């Protein structure tokens, strides 16, 4: 959880212009490796949800309302 919070804080601080997707993989991989597949999936879902939340609070404006959700799904797949 501490890693996810750290990555999310750095993601929020750098803004939406800089991509930070690679850094979300670290807590997911560590959770899956050391705890198990289920923990990795839970961390993955949590990371995608946090990323979506950060997208919403960043103030970024999209041309369609569904685009942030699409992006969250793509990031979840990543």
Tell me what you see in this structure.
This protein has 78 residues and is an all-alpha fold. It is built from 4 helices and no strands.
Structural class: mainly alpha
Q: Please tell me the overall pLDDT.
A: 88
Continuous helix count: 4
Distance between termini?
A: 19 Å
Shape: globular
Q: How helical, in percent, are the residues?
A: over 70%
Order of helices and strands: HHHH
What kind of assembly state do the chains in view correspond to? single chain
List low-confidence stretches: none
Strand percentage: under 5%
Q: Nearest-angstrom radius of gyration?
A: 13 Å
What summary fits the major beta sheet?
Answer: none
Number of strands: 0
Task: Supply the key terms.
globular; 78 residues; 76% helix; mainly alpha; 4 helices; single chain
What's a concise summary of this model?
This protein has 78 residues and is mainly α. The chain has helices at residues 2-14, 21-34, 37-57, 67-77. The protein contains 4 helices and no strands.
Question: Which helices and strands, and how do they pair?
Answer:
Blueprint: H1 2-14, H2 21-34, H3 37-57, H4 67-77
